[in-house]
């Protein structure tokens, strides 16, 4: 029996993870579910998969659940404490971390130190301190398998290469991007509304990652995640715009051979592979029909029109605390945009202003506590930058 814990079970990844576990059938069980605050969706999942543990991050929602907890289900503490406890349950074989943002840092570290098989859809901790987290995983013999479709594709293409030899084997990594809803948009993006930014042409995702896809920051964050997951120089990672989302990413080996992973855009496939690795099982994804593909389109990214992508590569090259500052300032900027306090085009301005006053990158030795401290500092500076933009435009 494989016992699965799902952190962020009512988000798009979590919902598909529940479907994938059910699809795998006998021998697979959802042991625990953790959510932010959606008690209605959590209750439906509890009835569906009957977990032994639940956790609710939001304190008010946790109090409501605690007062009427389902029989036979243990309610873990609220907040980060509950997430970390869920991630390190002794009975859990696999931890799927699909929470959004830096809040996933503590539960990921807890799962690593509990030597778990980790299916990782929460890229932000890997951006903040990915190299250190990978070292911790090696130390505690934890296994991290990426869930997002592009890192998963690269992981699958590297199946025949030993860890530690990726850089020597590869000349390039092709990181594909759909381009989001605005890549073909003509004219200024300053008037883009949150509702427009949340209409992704290919994927159904949470608000934050959907906005990141619209600004192309998501590709920048994924580039840093891939750099850290596979110990690669950022210069070897090339972002490629591919609107059809059929080729999910690929690698070019030193001999010129290119391997790519293709499938219909369906997150149940990379989710299930992260759970069953190194084995494969029949998934819920529709088989790819090459005869229905007219052609596959690829283009270079426009760094001037989408400056978030350039800022991410800048932070990756600087190193140290810069990636953590990039991630935190972006989270704050996106939150302000979704709340209507700043414009879509102000998002990179907030990030750039925060990075401009950052100190301690470029070769500085990073610790896990440094990354967490930088995250908190950057949130304050980014909030001030967003507030300054808002006041200036009144």
Description:
The protein has 394 residues and is of the alpha/beta class. The chain has a domain of 145 residues: Rossmann fold. It has 16 helices and eleven strands. The longest helix has 25 residues. It is globular and about 55 Å long. 48% of the residues are buried.
Secondary-structure topology with pairs:
Blueprint: E1 2-7, H1 12-24, E2 28-35, H2 39-49, E3 53-56, H3 59-67, E4 74-75, H4 79-87, E5 94-97, H5 105-113, E6 117-120, H6 124-140, E7 143-146, H7 149-157, H8 166-169, E8 170-177, H9 194-197, H10 207-215, H11 217-229, E9 237-241, E10 247-253, E11 258-262, H12 268-276, H13 307-318, H14 322-338, H15 346-356, H16 368-392
Parallel strand pairs: 1-2, 1-5, 2-3, 3-4, 5-6, 6-7, 8-9
Antiparallel strand pairs: 8-10, 10-11
Task: Describe the structure concisely.
The protein has 16 helices and 11 strands. The chain is α/β, with parallel strands linked by helices and 394 residues long. Helix 5 packs parallel to helix 6.
